[in-house]
Queue: 3 jobs
Job 1
Amino acid sequence: MFPVLPLELQLRIIELAVPPLTKRNLGKVRRLSTRLPLVCRSWRDFAYRVVPVVPRFTITCEGRDWDDPDPETILDAVAASGRVVREVELDLKLMEDDIEVSRFNRVLRGFEEVWLDLPADETNSANSLDTVNPSIRRLVFTTWQGADLDLSNIWPFTPNLEILGIAVRPPYSGCFEWDVFEGSRASNTVRHVCLQFAYDRKTGRCTLFDPDLFSLALPPSLLTLTVRHPSILTSGQRSVITAACQRNDTIFVEQVYTLAPGQKVDGWDIEEWALSVT
């Protein structure tokens, strides 16, 4: 008879073998789950007790298709089913119309945590947040591509709001402006920031930070700063960033990756990063 591993060890093995449960990994997780049977048949009840499952409701809006399907109807159906869903993701990357603020708030009613995928260079949809539903306590920007978002507008309406994570993809030639946090309580609530994929195609240099960077003031609440780019920071930039993170007790992570000729993105899963830090 084959020895049986402790149930906790079996679950740990599966945890290491199966990638994080993100939308991109769904197919892979499904295949691996069928190939990793557990010896103990009672594993499922144990897993339900030990592994927290937090359902997140996703609303995708493409083009001008905000009314079809009607998000409010879907939310009512979720409520009627008896499921408790505290997280919602608004995927607005392909949306063309502005969001009507009143509808925006009706859709977000009752949720405690909101994940936002914003369109590139979008301002109006993002700034609808200035009257975001006060029930929301946590906010995660999983994409924010240079949107001109004034974070100071949000807090008068949501005094307890905490920004868990922001993933920023600035324009290729632009630097990230840290003053977006100045003058608002965002400087005391933002926890994690990821700056990615901003470089000069001619010189190959990273443009996330000014070439002559000599000082950097980080939000006091910032726990981690991740910088992802296909180039290399200058020694001066790295020295200033490292010193700022040390003063702020912030963990600094630099990830340099290589792009093949003609390749624009490296296939990095931004949702996986957001889940790992939040």
Job 2
Amino acid sequence: MEYARIMGGKDSDMYRYFKNCIFRGFIELKKNVESIIYLVKIMSEESELPCFVNFNIQEFRARFMENSTDSEYLALVDKLVDQSYDNWRTNQYDKFQNISNGIMI
């Protein structure tokens, strides 16, 4: 929410630009999904890292929604950004940081 205020609020041109940048990032990820999958597959094979214990490459691939249209991706970005705005978990984490480390957000 603080960053949205810095950008001029949810209705500002900068906020819309921010959402557009996120959307373009998602499109680039989609364009490069094969390379990303390949790299993650190499890292996950015989890895003892906890993040790969129950790792499923097909589930990981599905998260890229390769068959989605650009308009579906745009709707996803809108949803993700809107859900993250003033999110309860983020606000609680900010409070924790303030109390434990004196970090004001």
Job 3
Amino acid sequence: MQQLWHTVHYDLIAKAYIFIVDDQNFEVNANLLSKALQITPEVSDHPFTTPRLENEIISFINKLGYSGHLTNISGIRTKTPHASNTLGNGVRMLILLSSSEKTSGSRLIPESPKAHRVTDKMAPRTGPLLHFILGFVLLASIKAEAATKKYQFDVQVSNVSRLCHAKPIVTVNGMFPGPTIYAREGDRVIINVTNHAQYNMSIHWHGLKQYANGWADGPAYITQCPIQTGSNYVYDFNVTGQRGTLWWHAHILWLRATVYGAIVILPQQGTPYPFPKPDKEHVLVFGEWWHNDVEEIVKQGNAMGLPPNMSDAHTINGKPGPLFPCSEKHTFAMEVDQGKKYLLRIANAALNDELFFAIAGHNMTVVEIDAVYTKPFTTSAILIAPGQTTNVLVYANSAPGRYFMAVRPFQDVPIPVDNKTATAIIQYKGIPDTVLPSLPQLPSPNDTTFALSYNNKLRSLNTPNFPANVPLNVDRKLLFTVGLGKSVCPTCINGTRLSASLNNITFVMPQTGLLEAHYKNKKGVFTPDFPDKPPKAFNYTGAPLTANLFTTHGTRLSKIAFNSTVELVIQDTNLLSVESHPFHLHGYNFFVVGTGVGNFDPAKDPAKYNLVDPPERNTVGVPTGGWSAIRFRADNPGVWFFHCHLELHTGWGLKTAFVVEDGPGKDQAVRPPPKDLPPC
């Protein structure tokens, strides 16, 4: 069980407690000066996710530890008309509890994501209550103070059973997938990671920008050395200017096969979603499962110079579903009420597969990608690459029954993949488990037409509240070619092994953190001379190239001036084979201003760019045999990893990093490293 800790300050000189309850979370304010303690439980477990009757509210308040007994509520005001005995959406309740004694102090209280209870141990009783004042105000009328959310992550080995047999896997807090992190925009998040496993560990908070704070970003040997067995490291960061669904995962070896979980960032108090408010929310994280130990499988593949064995199943929330053997009990199920709407927060944590996702009998409305709101559009299926997140609204308006949700790979090249379908179930309330679910109609595995059409529908909102600040002028233009190749390997079959490269450079991982080397000006760790374009132009997507496949090797980084605007064109090539590549940039969002099939034409293609409302992402899917153009402003100083999010290709060297120089301002330089930064 994950454990969260919050500091409750109590200062009763003001002679008051304030309890604030709304439909998404509750807060305990310790005094009239609003020293806020914000507690964000799992939304699905919270007692106020739907309107409640007066007696339910009274019961809930009495359970908060009030020493007397509350019997009625009066003076209800709501944002919109509701029945007089109902707590409606869009309101918050203030309970003012005054005390006759003066005291002050603070203490730590634990928060379980399954139970939230304020007791006398949390806020000590200081005398009889003088009176109650009950009222309701609009959400926008009170601004909550930013909270600090603290999590304890214990990395440990746990036995987990899937596909008819158990095996030891690396987990966080014994959970698979790991715990979901909840926060609000503006919160501070502190996560203490203690490593009890036999592997070194680092964790990346995928999509969080970590402004000037790369020390909290997580990729091993890029922004930190790994957390060694028996050691710990505290990731301390602010959630600034972001809201939506992201995710976290191990960022060393292939350990993210089992070490991953979701991040849910709720909007600031009083800020509604720019789409119809859901009645309930659910997290869906897609993954992969191997029968055998993943690290051993990778070692075997590397020893032979060949790709490791593909996974044996895909999973939804760690469960493959009943189409796999011994998996009836390993099926995620979601109960819905007829007529209600649901927000599904989806993350693709699979290591090597882009995935199609669909729900039998239901369409989906896409409202967010990579924690950025989009212009809503309705679709029967979505495509999601490793590293990406997507939020969809689903209306439970079909005939009551049981329906499969299903994922399977997008197979864009003629190479073997785990093409089995993972399933979960949507079950309407009152429908028995004996009713057989129906399967959705997924796109065919090689449906590139659907893939291109789906991605072309993605658009930023570009409204006054959520503008698309696309750089219109470019200071630095880059062209990175993506290719597979070969490297010398005396112990491998035929004396070579497969490799991958950007601009014909296979990245060599250092033995110390690149950010620390940059910050301390250490010599000999990397060179800031990654080329802006490939060494030689050629017909990138023509006939397959099978000669001159050997790449150069180096720890070469691209140096970028602070606050400069950058355009990067990522070009797939037919070195060995064309293939789609999901590229992730740490520390930034970017705008995908253009995508095309074939070779990028610098004379003609920029005229087709979307500079008005392009999708804003942190992970872009470069199409098979095509290109993607992204733009961003380099306003986040530090060393930021840029890599393919197919773990197979990352391990082969398909990666580099940007060194963004410090700016002239006081807060435009990389912060000093934390004292507990792990040593190498």
